[in-house]
Write a structure and sequence with these properties.
By secondary structure, the protein is an all-alpha fold. It has three domains: 417 residues, no CATH class; 87 residues, Serine Threonine Protein Phosphatase 5, Tetratricopeptide repeat, CATH 1.25.40; 67 residues, no CATH class. The protein has 32 helices and no strands. The radius of gyration is 29 Å and the shape is globular.
Amino acid sequence: MKLIASAWSNVRAAALVCALVAVAFHVNALGNGFAYDDLHILPEHKELHDIHNLPELMLKPYWPGEWGNELGLWRPGTTLTLGLQWAAWQDRTMPYHLVNVLMHGGATALVVLLLATLATVPVGLLGGLVFAVHPVHIEAVSNIVGLAEVQAAIFFLAACLVHVRAGPTGARYGPGRIAAVTALYLGAFLTKESAVTLPGVIFLIDCARERLGLAELRAYLRRRGPVYGALGAAAVAVLAGRVWVLGSIAHPMGPLGADLLNAGVPRVWTVAGIWAHYVRLMAFPLDLSSDYSPGVIPIELGWGALNATGLVLALLFLGLAWLTWRDHDLGAGSTSARLVGFGVMWFVITISPISNVFFLAGVLLAERTLYLPSVGAVAVAGWLLARLIQDRHRLGWSVAIAILLLMGVHSWRRTPTWKSTGTVFDTMLRDYPQSGRSQWVIGDLFFQQGRVSESLRSYRVAIGILGGHAQLVTEVAKKLIGAKKFRAAEFLLLQAWRDEPDWPVAPGILAISRFQQRDWPEAERWARISLNANPREPVVSHILAGSLAEQGRYAEAIPWRENAIAHGEGDSWEQWLSLARLRLTVGDVRGAEMARDSARAKILKPEQLGQIGSAFQPYLPPHATIAKTVVISSFHCRIQRVFGPTTVVL
């Protein structure tokens, strides 16, 4: 009780209370498992399972597999944290969730400390409590890969706090503090892209703590020049890294179902509607969703009720920020209404990278992306509640307690939604069956049950809502190929390739389709088109090597088999064995022996040993010479000495 009583006047006690509340209201997340993107990033990401691969993975796209570059995500900080966690507890999910919950507690404490430094301890306490239990944070905290949002926010808030504590004049801003702020900025930016906005937020903080007109700007820049110089250099380094890893700075692929926004439809109509959702989710977060693709958020083709409301709300909040900014400066102990304007502008700045205003982001809207921007919203909430308590003590406390309890209970009840992929989809189908992604999921469920015709109907509805988005089209095409409906699959893939001729995925899957139909020349043609765009793709390299070998072009097949091994298939003993038999057919005995040794090193199960000899036959020419027969027989004898009896049919 003493701790709670002192939290109204003691900032450390306030931070501790809010952190404990944050942990308490999310502790039921410990019962969640892997859900949704967790599966692809952790248990299905085999490279991540070997800690020795971490340095290399940190120089690759965050999203593994064929969509890595197209999704435009490079988060080496997140990859490092998740990789270290996998090394510690593998597929035991409770520790991952414990880390997320504790991190949320830490982020909440930092929110309290920052707000108390800019205003009063009561404002920090009340804002921190709202942040601790806000339902919009559930996706970031309860989904394991939401760690990117929380970890980036911790670095970001810590950098702001280090900056603020230098004082408005910067008298305590020495090289050590500059280095600390820059290091924290790098940590945040390398964890999540939206942290790029830290320099803008630092400028906002300085403007809030002192009058900065045009007359004072030159002196201010002289004073803060070293800080902005260091942050600018750090930002350039990270952006250069993104170009080197991904080939571009921003997302090359737009949001799911938003192809019209790439086709010239004015973005402002849809973006204005999204701003209405921002306000709703911050102020009245009753209706939550794991998906905001078309069907939930429409692609607007003109002005209507929703986007007009969003535009009016955005203008009203910007006007409110301008009005409250005229109050006195912020600082420790300040009750200035300028904190309201500060909160509005914090939200505007930090949401900008994923708001689809300046460029198309990867999503139209996702609740997890509101984690850092919501600091601005809780700053406003903290100031309003503190003011209400000051003016109408009993009413103010009644309102504050009611809001916190409603939010806390809603968060507690929402957390199990992220227990598994099944619970996520069940909730999405129940709440938003009309969404394009829901229809996609229904199609997948029908397909898994063998109800192919019903599956295709759902896929057609999904494509009708979401358009011919490359990711949807190619995923549906894969299902069709699995059902041997090659013609329908190739129709979709050709459409995707014509829309996006520079993307390697559609031609790569076309190559797989033709390979399964034993059309070797066409499989080769499409594989080469795909590999021209992405020469490091292991599966398509495998297809090209196989297609060339089936056409008797063994020497040409060898470098592509080596390419598949070098870029992801190195742990497959079958790949090494295929390389060995290719090298044997061209008379490279030494190279075949080396590939044989690599295959032997990869074999873990005794029943696989008998496959060694018979695996050589498929790529042997029917007119094998006596010399080749002797070479193969000699090689087979060596295999027998290592693995035991096997059979090679010549």
